[in-house]
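Justification of resources, computational component.

The compute hours requested in this renewal are based largely on the per-chain cost of generating structure records like the one below. Each record pairs the submitted sequence with a full structure-token output. That output is archived, and it is also reused by downstream analysis tasks.
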Amino acid sequence: MATPIWNKQRKLWIIQGQKNGIKKTFYSSTSGQKGKREVLDKYDDWIEFGGVQKITVSKCVELYLKDIESRLGKRDSYRETEIYTRLYVLPTLGNAKMNNLTLRDWQAVINDAKPVSERVKSLSHKTLSHLRSVIVGLHKFAYKNYYCDSWRGELYIPQGHKKNERQVLQPDQIKRLFEPSDLWFYNAFLVMLLCGLRPSECLGLKTGDIGDGVLYIRRGINDNGEITTGKNKNARRVVPLPTLAQEIIESTIQRNVKANFGTDWIFPNGVGGMPCQDTVRKQWNKLKEERYLSGTPYSLRHTFISIVSSQTHLAEGTIKELVGHSDTFDSFGVYKHRIDNEIENAGKVINLTFERLKDAK
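The structure output for this chain reads:
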């Protein structure tokens, strides 16, 4: 039996084997015993199975979904994978063997994907991008488990598919948005705009998330009423709390106290419980119709990014960090210590910018 050898110069575990006159070398860049086991498992699998276990795409999807569920639960990633594989992958490739498929076969799935509804003429660029991501994730899982070989090349999105432009509110619409409203979630809309929050992040705010002039984004509430840790690994962050937003949040908390809710949600539902995104969207649509606004609650975040990018002198890297698009910090503590002054200054700049838009004549 072959034995793994650690190559100090290349920093790799290496094992060489021979089967039926064919020589093959396996590698692992993971150091220590974990890497040694990893490269040995690759070698053993090749000796026993010839390198690839022959299973159908349908079976691979089943195993992949179980893997996602065990790691992340039946949340957004699981649901997206289940939907896209069921609608676009399995109907054409379900019975095919994973190890027989080429990059061209998978590209054909994207090229030939058709809308499920007859009311939609063609799939959007965004939908096909999601489909591509699902296929890539499935392939990585299959390759990791020796169900297929690696690809040479990349999947692409065919030309001619519409890219949905991000909608942002115009200055006159922002001014109309700031006119008082009795809608229950009206204050939440203003905070989304002033802090650049995703709707899920805004609804997930609790009183304990308010710091000294900042908000700590720790959770979100998705469309299914589940509390999550955020859209991605950068979602947990610190954002400046402009004076306008702070006043709105304080008045909302006082409203909750007067209602005797006894809740720590800043934007609870009408009886003090966890808020619901569907209700928020319905109220936005009502406000949107009344005041001739555009977009969705998520557009308020896009508006924040557009306004802060074009009308302030904040650095691009700072803006990315504030909205959770950056990968430059590991924890609240490190981040807060590193840019305390920057957070404070950003909050002042953002506040002055929206004060000017709110009071524009």
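The two ends are 82 Å apart (CA to CA). Residues 5-49 form one domain.
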